[in-house]
Each structure stands twice: as structure tokens, then as C-alpha cells.
Known about the structure:
Strand order of the largest sheet: 1-2
Radius of gyration: 19 Å
Number of strands: 2
Number of domains: 1
Distance between the termini: 59 Å
Order of helices and strands: HHHEEHHHH
Structural class: mainly alpha
Largest sheet: 2 strands, antiparallel
Amino acid sequence: MALRNIATRFDPHTIKQQLGITVSRWDDFMYLMRTLAERKVQSKEALGFLWTYCVTPARMPLSPIVLPNKRAIEKVQSLYEGKGRGADLLSARGTAWGLLNAVTEYVDHERRARSSEYRLDSAWFGQGAALKQKALNAALQLVA
Length: 144
């Protein structure tokens, strides 16, 4: 059986229609992401962002006190500061977009979970999805 040589042409408008993404929603999304990429964030501000908004609290053993998960904060901070995928890109390095990407990478790939299936479910529908939404809302507040 011979393979046919089929020339393909990428048509973003067709892809958007096939995925059910309206052009105006896509344009709105792109505008927000560019705005986040233009918002520079200082290291101190980034750390405050992470401590305030982006890490699921952990309950202290035998105590009602709830504290931020320091290891998670340190991991997200290291992703933001250059160890994350794409963290060295101009759009991410030192920006609100980079912060959001660091949180997303942590939730989707680094966060402890019983299995990769649990991590995926959490990232899409559970606590991970809620954490990513919280990070997005906080990042948008930085540019408001």
C-alpha cells in the first residue's frame, strides 16, 4: 500500500471552529495573556503572590493551625525563577504570565498525588483546577 503525499495547510480559523472556540473568545484570551506577559513582577512581589494566593494550605499535625505549604511555594518559585518549562522566554521571565505558568506547571506536573490519574483529575476538575483558577484570578488582579 503506497502512502499518498497529502499536503496540509494550517488554518487557525478552521481549527477554532472545529474546537468550538469563537474568534472573539480566543481574541479575549490572547489579549489577557499578552497583558499578563507585559506585567513585570519583582521577586519579592512574586513571593508574596505565591504565599497569598497560590498554594493549598496544609494542616499542622495534631493542630487546628493551617499554614501555607512551604515546600510547594519553594517549588513554584523555582519554576518561576527559571527551572520551569519556558520560564526563560521573554514573555514569562519576570512576568505575571510566568507566575501563572509556574503555578500551572506545578499543579499539572509536580504536585504530589497518589498517581498520575489522580493528579490529572485534580488538575482538570478538582483542587488543582481550583488552584489554577485562583492563580489566574490573582494574576489578573496584578494587571487590573
